[in-house]
Amino acid sequence: MPKDEYQSRDFRIVGTRPVRPDGIDKVTGKARYGADMTAPGMLWGAILRSPHAHARIKSIDTSAAEAMKGVKAVITRADFTYQPESASLADVLDNCMAGEKARYDGHAVAAVAATSKSIARAALKAIKVDYGVLPHVTDVDEAMKPDAPVIEAGRVQENVPEGYSENVTGRSQYGHGDPEAGFEKADLVIERHFTTAATHQGYIEPNACLAQLGADGQGEIWVCTQGHYMVRNTCAGVLGLDAGMLRVTASEIGGGFGGKTHVWMEPTALVLSRKAGKPVKLVLSRDEVFRATGPTASSSIDVKIGMKKDGSITGATATYRLQAGAYPGSIAFLSAMCGFAPYDLKHVRTEGYEVMTNRPKAAAYRAPGAPMAAYPVESVIDELCQKLDLDPLETRLKNAAREGTKASYGPTYPAIGLEATLKAAQSHPHWIAPLGENQGRGVACGFWFNFGGDTCVSLMVNPDGTVSLSEGNPDIGGSRASMSMMAAEELGVDLDQVRTVIADTASLGQNEVTDGSRVTFAVGLATIKAARHAIQIMKERAAMTWGIDPEAVDWRDGAAHPAGPNAGKFPPMTIKEIAAIASNTGGPIAGHHEVTAEGAGVSFATHMVDTETDPETGQVKVLRYTVFQDAGKAVHPDYVEGQFQGGAAQGIGWAINEEYIYGEDGRLQNPGFLDYRIPVASDLPMIEPVILEIPNPGHPYGVRGVGETSIVPPLAAIANAVSRSSNVRLTSLPMSPPKVLAAMKGT
Amino acid sequence: MSQIHVITTINGDETEFLCEAQETLLDVLRDHLDLTGSKEGCGTGDCGACSVIVDGRLVCACLMLAGEAEGRSVETIEGMADGDDLHPLQQKFLEMAALQCGVCTPGILVATKNLLERNPNPTEEEVRYWLAGNLCRCTGYDKIIRAVMDTAADMRGAA
Amino acid sequence: MVTVRLWGSLGDLAGKTEVEIPATTLRELLQGLEETYPALKPQLERGVSVSIDGKIYNDSWSTPIREDSEVVLLNRLVGG
Ligand code: FES
Ligand code: FES
């Protein structure tokens, strides 16, 4: 039997591009997403939200709303009678329904359930909230000042130095060596300040759920989420319910990118349902999605790098200040870990500050913390290359982390793929293609960790020999196809013999959310092991039938074979034949595997982009884009390419268009797709994906997570292209036309 | 609340419904007729997830009042395949992996079907501009554009 | 004894960036850290990830650690 570790092998199915099993439902409109489900007697929920960035809630009068025909329940924080035990669950509760004060524009303050959408909306208007408006702060640098309005006192961790506002809740610092001594050795040192705007994950499907909760504490939720186990556990923790009494089913999910790894309104739907005694459907509007579900952090950053004339980096420091929104955050430490991770540095120090502001609670967004970490670092390296007349790819190669390098965040790297991506970039025709007037070419590298985590998979061999696979991770981008492929590969059966479903929380053990690019890695690992478990049972059944020792049975091509001439002369028994007599040989056959997957393996990418800047308007157009990334082993190359392309497109949006714009009044000015402009088809060129396969030693097929790294390099790659084409260094995202124009005019 | 009585044709079938005056065509399709293939990504005409064809014209169902459907012919994603036979665009989207989460897919398929009916030989740029009102956050559009161009070529070859 | 490297701000609390802990598993390591360096307790309670010979572990208590293993403490990782 093959080992857990990677073994080189020829694949039959893995690495091919079959049509995904859930595809037909999705192209015909049959697939059911979060808002597509109904229940008998269902009510419509709606949420009233604060128009103020920061305000004490003096009183809420719901009587007029309650008296309206068709209104079945009105709730406020008073209806959440349970006080969660942990601070983080208490934060989730307070974010779902404001307690003493509203902490940001869009913070939920009350909710209703009614017999129609229009009645629910009318009822919201009838609720009277008396607010005492407080001073607010939405900018990260302002929020750090000692005299800034404090969002919540008493949340400062022991690692924060004196002299800051209590909004600064956490600090982390990484690195080694003596950067100051390193700078002494440099021929050129560049220090710059950068800012990035908050951007939203921008999934096209707004958050939605259908919930039912009885007085007996038993409940059901249908929800679009990246983790239905997380929804179950969080709702139970927030409302004081037993997790086992809640059954959560994941709908098809219309994008998440980290934004659906949190709970935003499911407890609200449950409490409405309990009060009304009916199922309640709660669907957020796009406006609510922008105002109240997690964007990523905005940031303020200082980076300083010293370089010798030969391109070697002698010292580097970075300070990352990330605004986490209205609750204590935890993203800046990831920036501090990721910023210099691609490089082999003797002297490096990074710092990250977590800062509260009057904005919605920041959420994970694809490789959280890493894009804003790489952007300033890769920008300054590019500027050093320009000023020292060095080749940007050669210089990165010269400093590249490789096997044995001590990473800037501490550990020594095993085999990694950064050099391979840089070399692939060097030898790609894109690198030497001619550029026209006002055009520039930028490159940048990116790094991300990838994760494992709690994972359960069950694999049932049905009486007819077909296979049903249950896994517990919502399928965001084709993972059911990948799981079926890995199971079929391992079992030696045709792909169409395996069907993968996403089980509800009552049907399979705990699963970590679909995040950290974990699914193909961790669920794939568990799928392979579950298949091996089933194979072991089938070998035993064949051995029993033949009257030989199970050790003397081999499994290949979907059948049990006697291991050698000594084992006896029997014709092979196929999976179908073994399944047909399962009742006679010991009962139904099922394999399963439960694991906390560890050792996911880090991932690197290099991106290359050509842009053209319009000297009249400052508008930046992306002309050509190439992604070079290590996938370990691409199980379904189409979906690996799709992850590369999708991440790059989101990074392009972050670089050029997307930003949360707050007014003086602390209100979000652009909560809609018209003014918060994500890239549309006519904004983008084709995005060429180059998949490199440097096997992950910790996975039997060599698989690495691929979902997140692709959003890390684009910010700097584009900034470098634009800076080179316009001959000015841009240090603030997004590079919107007015900013670019002002920079070019030197104003 | 008094309701409006509407008679219309949806995917070739005569359909009657009652709706409130302020309800959109998308509300009625999704909430009253259980045609949930059309999605609501924004409700303001900015995402194209609700794209349907009304009397041959591509519209955002979230911007059209349901009452306005009286006497018209509405085509939705649910009417795109002919029984088990997928439309060539649907088939090609599957083969070329032009969808990830798939929530934008119904709108994009309806919109591109309408494009190819008007212009069987679009350039890449024409496809990109035609789809500029249909947001996709997962794919970066690359595989979508390729699938549309490829389908157009196939359909021209077959015609 | 296992040598454990702490990240900078954690090292500030422990008074040094490298500490020695008698441990043969991840669990013993975490318990040993908390007992020897009580100042680290709040962070250990919030959670850490541990890199052992270049592989990152979050939870598995029984993960073996050798005397010569490279052990590096990290903030607990989260993804999107
Ligand atoms: S829902 Fe109609 S355009 Fe977005
Ligand atoms: S495939 Fe997810 S939005 Fe297009």
TrEMBL record, chain A:
Q: What is the lineage of its organism?
A: Bacteria, Pseudomonadati, Pseudomonadota, Alphaproteobacteria, Rhodobacterales
User: What SUPFAM superfamilies has UniProt attached to this entry?
Assistant: CO dehydrogenase molybdoprotein N-domain-like, Molybdenum cofactor-binding domain
Q: What is this protein called?
A: Xanthine dehydrogenase family protein molybdopterin-binding subunit
Checking InterPro entries in the record gives: Ald_Oxase/Xan_DH_a/b, Ald_Oxase/Xan_DH_a/b_sf, Ald_Oxase/xanthine_DH-like, AldOxase/xan_DH_MoCoBD1, AldOxase/xan_DH_MoCoBD2, AldOxase/xan_DH_Mopterin-bd_sf
UniProt KW keywords: Molybdenum, Oxidoreductase
The coiled-coil segments of this chain are none
Which Pfam families does the entry mention? Ald_Xan_dh_C, MoCoBD_1, MoCoBD_2
Species of provenance: Marimonas arenosa
This protein's record includes keyword Oxidoreductase = yes
Automatic annotation (TrEMBL), chain B:
Please list the coiled coil stretches. Answer: none
Q: Where is the 2Fe-2S ferredoxin-type domain?
A: 4-80
UniProt entry keywords in alphabetical sequence: 2Fe-2S, Iron, Iron-sulfur, Metal-binding, Oxidoreductase
Show the PROSITE patterns listed in the entry.
2FE2S_FER_1 (PS00197), 2FE2S_FER_2 (PS51085)
Q: Name one GO molecular function term.
A: metal ion binding
Q: Give the highest taxon in the source lineage.
A: Bacteria
Matching Pfam families, A to Z? Fer2, Fer2_2
User: Do you know which PANTHER family this protein is assigned to?
Assistant: OXIDOREDUCTASE WITH IRON-SULFUR SUBUNIT (PTHR44379)
Q: What is this protein called?
A: (2Fe-2S)-binding protein
- Which species is this record about? Marimonas arenosa
UniProtKB/TrEMBL annotation, chain C:
Xref: InterPro entries: Beta-grasp_dom_sf, Mopterin_synth/thiamin_S_b, ThiS/MoaD-like
Any Pfam family: ThiS
Q: What is this protein called?
A: MoaD/ThiS family protein
Provide the leader sequence positions.
Answer: none
Q: Which residues form a coiled coil?
A: none
Protein's organism: Marimonas arenosa
State the SUPFAM superfamilies in the record: MoaD/ThiS
